[in-house]
Write a structure and sequence with these properties.
single chain; Multidrug-efflux Transporter Regulator, Chain: A, Domain 2; 2 domains
Amino acid sequence: MSSPNSEPRYVISIAARMVGVEAHTLRYYEKIGLVEPYRSRGNIRYYSEADIERLRYIKTLIDDLGINLAGVEVVMRMVEKMVEMQRRIREMELQIEQLKRGELSKKTRKGGQ
């Protein structure tokens, strides 16, 4: 099941207005792989809240920090990798906790016999 933030809901003109860029800029960002809006059967682009957030982040990198598009691509890849690494760390921490609980319950059973 998808989250409400990933539900496609805004056409390109509305998304562009929300982000503060021109529609052709969003088309270009899609072309170079910075964003992947949902496409309807009629090939209409629909942007989700998550897409809008991502686009605002990209705009901040460009406008406020002066990063060019090549730099934005690098930053976005690094952010994605960091998010994936954090997810994997959380999984491993859960596995460690499960292993610890398993060891404790084994010790408790041995001690109780």
